[in-house]
Amino acid sequence: MDKLKYKKLTKDLLLIIIGCGFFAVGIALFLDPNGLTPAGVAGLAIVINHWLDIYFGISSLGTGAIIALVNIPIMILGIWKFGFKFFFSTIIATLISSWFIDLLAMNIPPLTTDPLLASIIGGACMSLGMGIVFKAGATTGGSDVIVRALRTNFKHIKTGELFWIIDGIIILITVAVFRDINILLYAVITLTVDAFVLDLVLYGSDSATMVYIMSDAEKAISDRILKELEAGVTIMKAEGAYTGKQKDVLLCVVKKQTFAKVKNIVTEEDPAAFMIVTKATEIFGEGFKDHNAEDL
Description:
Blueprint: H1 3-31, H2 40-56, H3 63-82, H4 84-107, H5 115-135, H6 143-151, H7 159-178, H8 181-203, E1 208-214, H9 218-229, E2 234-239, E3 246-255, H10 259-269, E4 274-280
Antiparallel strand pairs: 1-3, 1-4, 2-3
Helix pairs in contact: 1-4, 1-5, 2-3, 2-7, 3-4, 3-6, 5-8, 6-7, 7-8, 9-10
């Protein structure tokens, strides 16, 4: 193994350990002790753990051990579908996170008994950990493996829809086991925090606004954007399908806080201008993120 590969392997392993630590903190110290259920296999494991305790008096397994056990058939499915090499890091992450969860649960008391705080902070810690693990090219196993496998046979169903179906089933099972509708409400909070933090970790806070501007005053608009905002403008040649006329379309990418100024300039120069505004999740280049910037 050459030095570069060894360095990358070491970095990825360190990220997996750190990510699994945050993931475990969210579950063991916030969500699980408050009877709250996150999405995916972790949520299913919490339900099974509490179900065994409530109905059979079995509390010795631990949520982490149950996560590992539930992931066994899922990992077999993943290896069968995608090969062992791809899932090697995922198996490691699953085992480490499962061990961390039980270790923390046995040695550290819950950090809060307020279910609202637990759902927010627990969800944030869990998704922060997942994001860091994803950065290392691994996953924590569970529903993301199932979704990826299902997508090979059901390409007409979007990935997000499959996640919501699986998570929805798990949350409904949770409500049935605990017989408490509040669990459903807290689960929605946890899922919302999960999505926000995970996007923040994976895509950063460098999201920007991309604006397409079609106007007869394109020269005045582009000049003002260049001069007043010191932002770049790209001129693209376009042709109207109905009129057949040639027209310049301006493309401008600016930080979120600058968009209002762009809109004001366009409105002042041409109130009838046609604008398309969309979100750019990650921008590389001058004025934005460096191409060589280190990931988490």
